[in-house]
Hints:
Layout: E1 3-4, E2 12-16, H1 17-34, E3 37-38, H2 48-56, E4 62-64, H3 67-75, E5 80-86, H4 92-100, E6 104-109, H5 112-124, E7 129-134, H6 149-158, E8 162-168, H7 180-203, E9 210-213, H8 219-222, E10 230-231, H9 241-246, E11 256-267, E12 270-273, H10 277-280, E13 294-295, E14 301-305, E15 310-313, E16 325-329, H11 333-337, E17 342-347, E18 350-356
Parallel strand pairs: 2-17, 3-10, 4-5, 5-6, 6-7, 7-8, 8-9, 9-10
Antiparallel strand pairs: 1-18, 2-11, 11-12, 11-16, 12-15, 13-16, 14-15, 17-18
Helix pairs in contact: 3-4, 4-5
Bound molecules: pyridoxal-5'-phosphate.
Amino acid sequence: MSRPIEDLPTPAVLVDLDVLERNISRQAVRAKSAGVRLRPHAKTHKCPEIARLQLGAGAAGISLAKTSEAEVFADTGFEDIFIAYPVVGLGKAERLLALSDRLRLAVGVDSVEGALLLSGPFAAAGRRLDVLLKIDCGYHRVGVLPENALAIAEHLAELPGIRLRGLFTHAGHVYQAETPEDVAEIGKQEGEILASTAVALEQAGLPIEEVSVGSTPSARHAMRIAGVTECRPGNYVFHDGSQVALGTCGPEDCAMTILATVVSVPASDRAVADAGSKTLSQDSLRPRPNGHGLILGTQSRLQSLSEEHGVARVEDGDSFRVGERIRILPNHACVVSNLHDRLYGIRANRVETEFRIAARGRVE
Ligand SMILES: Cc1ncc(COP(=O)(O)O)c(C=O)c1O
């Protein structure tokens, strides 16, 4: 039986199901029309039921960031997982070996040292782990520079316990882009850098079957570059305040909101909600910081957070009263999921379903 959202205790994370379904289907159509496989990054929701909706709309598999997330998704029957992260650490290769018994698995690498740690246990078991070499296309977080890719790939090709499936990149610097033109340019470069690196490796005799790009803002541009085979946007399922600020989507495309209660109005220009950093995280609005979440239907934003308090500056024309319930558009939806046990799936302001965030807190 569905119940009205008025019955929910706060703070609560709401997901508008109509918007969620539309976001999932639009991205699937976009990837299909570009002729690339869609492998959504499920770290955004950490929720197998939502990943099932993505697969149902045509996704070829899922991406995750952590081994422990992959274990949760494997337990619920997912058969094709790419851990888009350089997996290095105590016991990780053995856990990957166990996972690879159960599903089609690949992981990221960006160093020979890291690859050696994976290759040893796989070779000892008479197996090979598929890896994708991470290329730095300008974000300068992890990844090898394109000009160094061939030398490292040649090393990887010699290791007995791994198989180089392909290349991947993530243009995270797109979140600093000031204009839609800059977003498009970064996306185009992301695709071009990865596709040209793949060509160089193939010309040197290394087969590259996967050329994988994608962030939510850049994917639509990067996926159209010839040679790209796969895209991995994650945030698009929900979108958030940062995607609106970047021009990726409109406010109507944001599926996730936080239902909160105004617990105090200590001054005419200040209202305090029961949603602080333990509900929203401290992540800034991108590309330009501007508070910690817009209060929907108003001009006011949470301007500072402590753990359980979200303090809004009340803008001219807005007013709040103690006990009032508000909806907040978070700056960054992916981190919100990791802070909560469940999402409430709503339609027309009624709770239709609850999603358990099964991989919540799985960070190793
Ligand atoms: C390696 C990698 N791939 C894909 C994504 C998905 O990007 P987005 O969250 O912009 O959709 C991320 C996000 O952080 C990532 O780190």
